[in-house]
Amino acid sequence: MKKVFVTGATGLLGANTVIKLLRYDYTVTALVRKKSSWMGEENENLRLIEGDLFSDISEYLQDVDAVIHIAAETSQDLLHYEDYKKTNYDAAVHLFAQAAAAGAEKFLFVSTANTLGYGSSAVWGSEKAPQIYPFTHSYYAQSKLETENYLLQQNRGTKVVIVNPTFMIGAYDRKPSSGKIIFWTWKKKLVFYPKGGKNFVHAEDAAEGIIKAVEKGKNGEKYLLANENLTYKEFFGKINTITGQAPLMIPIPDAGLAMLGMIGDFLRKLKIKTSLSSPNMKALRINNFYSNRKSSEELGVRYQSVDKAVEDAIRFFERKNNEVKVERQI
């Protein structure tokens, strides 16, 4: 039985990963801020410890085969690079140092597909493609890329493997995080959508990819965890079909998104937090497409349809909503 240490266990990807690890008979120690935030079931092979990413966790890393670092700052409204660097770079460096000192065999870092160059409908982005605009101007993506570069220079003792998930959809999206995109069109009569697109992947499959990367990933390699390349119109169409609704769909002009980006840039100069910015609005106007060929062939990851991801996410949101209603009645 293998032993792993996991960060970010209460988030969308972290929860799916820990649940799969337990299903595959791993012994898991998970770092969480609050044990009450864990959404899965109790398990004799799961140990939750409370702390933050800068805690001394060396005692929990003894005899650990791998450290899976998922926790990250993913907000899009923070104003300064340092706001991302502290969590996404400094904490990763701190954790890696403890893992290496404890003799962990492998350190798996969960990054983002946006540290890699995206493609178009004709040629998809891959692990070999260098990062390009607008993500070169994304503080979040830049902090992840800086961490990747650091870790790849430190992989002589403890092996380093990096996975780069695309946009994840699925159950256990507690906040919600990426699942907010479902509420963009769900139960709406009028939907405005950008003309771009992106790659979507089931969070379960991204979790499977992490475990496969722990078991089969090569030292110093990156693996895109990606599935379906869809325009936003196509993705919202899937949600409409699954939920049995037919809202009026209206495209947002590129010029309108560009204007929103400039407004966001101005607000940011005034120190006002907002997810609006020229790079973020540009991201909505491009086809941010990627290939999963490497993870499929080298890791053996088999991907489910995005329809299944949407169905699972909606069922989770409905279940959580029903639980809230019951609690209020009590």
TrEMBL record:
Cellular component terms, GO, for this chain's entry?
A: cytoplasm
Q: Which Pfam families match?
A: Epimerase (PF01370)
Domain of life of the native organism? Bacteria
Q: Which GO molecular function annotations are given, in alphabetical order? A: aldehyde dehydrogenase (NAD+) activity
In what residue span(s) does the NAD-dependent epimerase/dehydratase domain sit? 4-224
Query: Record's PANTHER family?
Result: NAD(P)-BINDING DOMAIN-CONTAINING PROTEIN-RELATED, PROTEIN YEEZ
State the protein's name.
Nucleoside-diphosphate-sugar epimerase
The species this protein was found in: Chryseobacterium oleae
